[in-house]
Structures
1.
Amino acid sequence: KSGIFLNSNNDFKGDVAFASPGSVTLRDGSGLTLSSSNAGDDLTVNSGGLTLDGDIGVGRHFIAEISGDVIQRSGKIEVGGETRVAATGPDGVGNIFLQSPENDFGSNPALGRNVVAVGKNIALADKTDLRLAFGFATESFTATAGGSIVQAILSSLSAGTHSVFTAGENITQEGGARMDVAGGSVLTASGGRIAL
């Protein structure tokens, strides 16, 4: 399939919107703002900060390596497969706030549903199930799901200050998963069970 591949040392001053039946790769030496866009295959972003300001559709996998914060200002993001977001910043790590209740990470289970997030304060929301394959927050980790929150097999999740998990169904761990939280944790499974 055709695609969009902008891998050079770009600097997009205004919002960027794209539409492609194939993969999209974007590199920006400074902050990047994406308005409503769609990639039929993978979306890969490398920038000095990332703001989502509209509905973002990704047919397969979403990979973001960001030297700053990842902020969802408006809209939702729907990713067919896996999501991997790493945020660094001036002090070593940046925040990740992907909190829209309409987000859907792993909408096509055949492509994998794992979410990986590394940052300072991390907040993720999914309208269905949220499957965490790795999480590392130097401060807080917040996860919200309309369905279940599942920590994947043999995965680890760390929070430097505290964690808050809120699920419409269950909060569970698969075999060998480990959670390490330096401070308090608040776990709410309004429609199911908690098994950690």
Note: The radius of gyration is 16 Å.
2.
Amino acid sequence: TKPASRPPVISGTTTRVRVANLPAPKLSAASSRLRWTCRSAAVAADSDAIAEAARAEGVKVTFLPFVVKAVVAALKKHPKLNATMDEERSELVLHRRYDIGVASATEGGLIVPVLRGADGRSVVDLAREIERLSAAAREHKLKLEELQGGTFTVTSTGTKGGVLATPILHHPQVAILGVHAITRKPAVVDEAIVIR
């Protein structure tokens, strides 16, 4: 077998220098401004059909596997976000794998198990694995390797109804996505205001 090739590395990046020299208040202000609202009507329609099929397999499908699928698609377009910082070498390491950390609340605090190979999984398989990892986290049964090696993290405050929380990066990763409550809101559709 061939030895695994090393992921591309950007040495001494200007991004690294700029981030290191930016005052802390500016860093927090920058991160809190990156807040989007998106419509989920199309996903909801897909979700209902997939959830029905998944129920037959004993799997509960939430919006989270769809979020993970969207994250992987975005990371493929923006590979510098699917990266970790190598502090010793001052290098940004870009990963070719998509091992997504999914934050889980436990009695002992937040824990981030890693969903391996998220890019090669179906929505139902993602749902099954998220369910398994979350249960293992709550029961303190995760293995060390299930907590290491994530390339990006998704955290959700949706079950608590949050809309303004700012997630904290899971070091040495360089990016994180915080998903907030999914709610029905008024929208303009064909010149009429409807609830979506």
Note: The longest strand covers residues 152-156.
3.
Amino acid sequence: PPDRAELERMAATAGIGPIAPDAMETLTGIADGLQRPEIRNLLELLSLYRIGVDAPVTAEDVRACAPIAEGGELEPVVQAVSARRPGEALEALARAYSRGRTPVAAAMQLGRWFRLVHAAATHPGGPGAAIDRMRPPLRGPRRTALERTASGWSGAATETALAMILDCERGLRGIGAPGPDRAVVERLVVRLATLR
């Protein structure tokens, strides 16, 4: 994946203005889990999303444009965690690592997914109503997976999951207790997959 300097050049080429430091960190983490054409698509979408906005790009802007419909090598990890199958999730994580994906990318992918699950699980109209309002829209297998996960996870459980993921991301950035990055994410995957 491109490094931070190259991402900044790609963003400038796409016509994206100033990017806040936390937004750049978020963009770097997301890009780490994507192929170059997907990164270009993300930056083009972000540029369109920001038309008419003068303030620097925020982390929320980046997350809003992230390609949640495609998880690449990390998608099996996310779906195994969602189905509460820790052994399968760890095997999928090992495969993702062997294909060049990083612990940071895995944590961010889990965070993106569980933010969606939380929104769907806590919507007063039910998961279907929440998904209907999501932008960009979710369709096909991804929508089915989100409805199934949101129906099987309570709002409280998704809040706990998001807190765990945030703690993990802090640890990966050196803010919390230190530890080898892969081991930190492996522990996260097992804790999420066994959460009730």
Note: The two ends are 35 Å apart (CA to CA).
